[in-house]
Sequence to fold (489 residues):
Amino acid sequence: MRISNNFEQNGPNFEDGKLGNKPKKNRVRKYIKEFCQSTTIQGPAYIVKNISFWERLWWITIFILGVIGSCIMVYQIWDKYVSTPVLVSLATKEEMIRDIPFPAVTICPQAKVANKCLNYTNILMARKAGRMEETDPRENIIFDYMSLLCKSDNHEGTISILLKSLNETTRKMLELAGAPISHKKGFSLHDYLRFLTYCSTVNLSEAHCEWMGGKIKCKDVLTPILTEKGLCFSFNMYDVRDIYSDLNTMNYAREGVRRKDWSPDRGYFRKTENLEELYPRKAFLSGAKNAFVAVFFTHKDDIDYACEDFSIQGMQVTLHTPTRIPRPERVSFSVGLDSIANAAVIPSYTQTSDRIKHYDPKKRFCYFENERQLKYFKFYSQSNCNFECYINYTITQCDCVNFYMPRDNETRVCRLSERFCLQDARKSYNEDILKERLDRFRSDDKTMCKCLPLCADLSYNAELSQSEWDWSNTDEVEFDSFNRSELSM
Fold:
């Protein structure tokens, strides 16, 4: 009985949440102490040791700061994953040259207007000297037309001075003579293509072209196109009707090749046994013998150095993807008179894994094909998007567009009297774009168009070499029939 009574007295007591008369907080404290003594984390073991208050406070502070630093690093990694979940890595590999198209080549003559239409320097000197009454009225009208292609200082305050005195009969006579005129609300440039074509300094029947070592007619492979540099000629480019959307109402030149067998995303998607039928054209082998050769002749009477500052007479050449509108004012190289330029083209093809398609374009920083639709273009590209952004900005600033810009039925072409607005818009556009890109938190993004690159894209780099054209070279006997005193190349 005595033993039994002793057991009951000293046995476990579960009342009031106690175990052996010890509160739960003592158990928790015991477990924490055991954890701190056993853990491999640096610091907690020193906190539970029998040390002074200041030593314990030091270790507690170090431990808390370590936990805070770890949380900050974890947050930074998480934030980087959320904001930029796609990591870009460059893995180069060689592709067969037959799998990519030959670059589109756009050639723009530096001489903008033929002497048969206008002696630009003579009219400029006469206007500055106040001798306009001694000049030809038709040349004065064409001189005004050139204000959109030549430097603005030459045309300051001279637009339509002579036109005010012209009657309707005189205008009809000028139109019959080959100068297209419209003067209802100032100059209209809807017929600018006809004007530049009539006054072009390039005669394709006189030019010489070769493709893959064989001679071809230049007029069969070079298509006229309007750019900011005036009338240019493109080789291996999609027809503009297949690049611009159906919304565009601008005047076109004659049709080029109307086939679409390639896109940056899918490559050549048309299946055919005859690979030479595919368009855009492609070179099957590398080397100078498998190239495009173009020889242009410029009449010496058409050479003029007054139109542009630091004018280099000859040709301005742009290499670009066949699906894009060329922008020779931005990227080009010049071929001077009596010169030969050789361009070794180095294509660069970028591909992106399809596994990142489920990410938002803002996170992967690129667009796949047909993922974004532009207003004036059937194909999205960063270049076309930037061009459309510039067009919209011009409409906002001037309520009209320049002669080479695509437009819909509700948008008019700017009159010559509004050319200064076009020039101001071109200058302020770059400034506004830069300001908005530097200030990401602006709410009034008037010009920011979010023009991301394509996820799969093709670009061309060129290594250039130039030399003088030797008229006495026996290898150039094919051009002996041309008179050097009248022509330059």
Observations:
- The two ends are 129 Å apart (CA to CA).
- The chain is about 30% helix and 15% strand.
- The chain has a mean pLDDT of 80.
- The longest strand covers residues 339-350.
